[in-house]
Each structure stands twice: as structure tokens, then as C-alpha cells.
Amino acid sequence: MALSLPLVGSIESPLTSQTLSVIREYLPSPAPLLAAIDQRIPMPVKQLVAEAPLNRMFAQAISDGEFDEFAGRRIRLEVNGGQPGITIGFWAGRLRVVDGPGEATIRGSLAAFKTLAERQQDPDQLFFQRRLIIEGDTELGLALKNLLDSLEWSTRITF
Fold it and tell me: Any transmembrane segments, and where (predicted)?
């Protein structure tokens, strides 16, 4: 005789969602651990891991010429504190991961970048609330923000 037990909580339940939210809020940031890992990964590996997905995600926009105004330019996306971070450029019709600083830097917390990537909040709000900050060539940073805001793309990030 099989005994079935009622499910106490499913992945979709409000209790599970609230519990995960509290855990995410009070656990220490993974940024220091990610920074330690980031500093030990050689640039060719970063390029291999990041370039193909970025170019796939934005393939239509790249083929439509949406990124052409960024040709030869470098923008750095950086977690508060400087590491981890990634500098992205656009050359020969492809997004490239490059070593070094960017002409513009967009800096924020992991949570702010996750919110931006998943399009959970209007990008302008993230900047007005100072959750994301543009430094350096702000015109370049705002141009990228406006481009990303105008494109149709989505992603789901879990951590």
C-alpha cells in the first residue's frame, strides 16, 4: 500500500519564494569569491566562455547594424569594488571580450546587473536609484544602456 504525503512546499509556493528572498538578502555577497576566481581565469578562457553567448544573444541586433556605433569602443561592466568585471568591445561585426579598462564603466551590485539582464526593472530606474552607475565616457555608457533597452532579448540568471 503506497502512502502519499502532501507536499509541504513546492518550488512555486509563496513560502519557498519568501524563504529564498530572505536567504538571498542576508547571505554574504558572492562577489569576493567571484573576484578570486575571476583573477585566476586566463583571458582566452573568458573570451571562449563569454563571446559566443553574447554574440548569439544579440545576433539580430548585430546583423541589423545596431552595434555599429560601438565599433572600436570598449565598455567595462564591473561589480562594485572593481572585481569581477568584464570589458566588452565591438570589432569586425562581433562583440569581443578584451583585457583592460573601458572608455566607460557601468558599475553596480550583482543584484542590479541581474535585474538589468532579466529586465525586471526599467534600466533608467536602476540608474536613477544609483543601483547602476556610469563612469568615464557617460555618453558611450548611456548609448549602450539605450541600445540594450530598445532591443528584444531575455535571459534568466540563477545564483
Answer: none
Burial class (CB in 10 A: 0-12, 13-18, 19+), 158: exposed
> Hey, what amino acid is at 2?
A
Contact 54, 48 (CB under 8 A): no
Note whether residue 154 is domain-resident: no
66-104: per-residue pLDDT in tens?
999 999 999 998 888 666 788 999 999 999 999 889 999
Q: For residue 84, give every residue at least 6 positions away whose Cβ sits within 8 Å of its Cβ, in sequence order, or none.
A: 31, 34, 35, 37, 38, 78
Is 129 inside any structural domain? yes
pLDDT tens digits along 112-158:
888 887 878 888 888 888 999 999 999 999 998 888 878 776 555 55
Range of the domain at 41: 31-146
